[in-house]
Amino acid sequence: MQLFGNSALKKELKKAKGLLWMARKIDNYRRDVIAPPVLARLREKADALRAAAADKKLEAAPLKKASEALDAVMRECGGDFYPVTWWAENTETLMVAALVVFALRCFVVQPFKIPTNSMYPSYAGLTGRVYAQGQAPSPLEKVSNFVRYFATNTEVIAPADGEVIIPLSPSTGMLEYKTVDAKDFGVLPGQRREYTLYVGRTPVTLRTPIEFGLEDVYLAAFFPDKDRKDATQAYRELVMSPAREGKLLHTGKVVKKGEPILDYDIRTGDFLLVDRMRYHFTSPKVGDPVVFPTKHIPGLGEREDVYYIKRLVGVPGDTLEIKGHTLYRNGAPAEGVPAFDKNARQEGDFAGYKPEGRLMAGQKMTVPAGQYFVMGDNSPVSYDGRLWKFTSETLAVTDNPLLGFVPAKEIIGKAVFILYPLSDRWGIAH
User: Fold this and answer.
1) Of 410, 340, 402, which Cα lies nearest the Cα of 366?
2) Helices marked H in 317-368
3) Where are the alpha helices (DSSP H) in 150-273?
4) What is the pTM of this model?
5) How far apart are the first and last CA of the chain?
6) How far apart are CA 242 and CA 258, in angstroms?
7) Which end of the chain is more exposed for a tag (fewer CB within 10 A), N or C?
8) CA-closest candidate to residue 381, choices 239, 229, 271
9) pLDDT value at position 7?
10) Torsion of Cα atoms, 356 then 359 then 361 then 364, to 10°
11) Residues with Cβ < 8 Å from 85, sequence gap 6 or more?
12) Over pLDDT 70: what percentage of the chain?
């Protein structure tokens, strides 16, 4: 038998082996439903092909003839096994692949989308980028921003002449908005924030994703001299300024009909990979960006059932305190990751740690056994262990000593890599 250089013979031999494997499968799985005469012919033709493939004087023509004979019988009795369709051939592979992906997601690594800006600038939720007048992105730049940041651009045009005026909420002093129903992807039920501003007396309506507020956008566009690291404090200052008239905030910006009022992008939140294996073999460490479900967290699970990502700042036995903008752990400034030092110095977009709630100025707190304490890197807007409270339905247990802490068993993983968008944060998660 000479196979070397004989491509036709090699092709027929490969086909014969595949047919014999399938014939055995049909025999094993369908022999009880195949008519005895047909089953006998199946075995006969399979034996004939096996003999042809084993012939020392192996030639392509007789091998092909034997294969065709077996193929004809298999088509008669193969049922769903033969002839092989794409789905029949690949269903098992697809199922195995799906199970592998599911197992990886559940036990090894899991993708996670940052929902809010509580960890900004380490990780970002939805963020806004405001363009100055005359610097609006070109169509090509819009395409580039969409690819790199999944950015959507909004340009607001003045419907009339007049000053741009912003309504404020009487209760909070922040921007007034309402929640409205909308369609996600055009079909799924969803919600949006709906803001209204005025040009003179003419209203202009803007809608944003439910997770995104326009506070930072308005500050950047209309009050660029204000420090945007703590938007709440900035609006408190504006509320106390001459710019406020009742529930209205005068921006001082006067526009003509047809001129742009506002031009901004909304960029997607970070997509992270979370390592779910690590904490099966080692304990979380101070500085780790940890992910945990809120469902069983005292003071938090009663409010919502989602996943949070926060910075682990205290392990059992640690005593914590905030002085100035610095987080102190056991009497010394917290160390281990850049976020601690950058917050203490208010470097870049880091706003510094804010003393409030359980860590208000002058108050210390010790982490109980079996618990961890977590905070967001964006302390002024982070709803974390300092602030978690029970609802009115659970007032009877407000003295729970574990209120504000995360049980060790609830931490499921550590953020390890920022997959998207392609911003300057892309890469290893810190």
Assistant:
1) 402
2) 338-345
3) 215-222, 231-239
4) 0.75
5) 63
6) 28
7) N
8) 229
9) 76
10) 170
11) none
12) 92
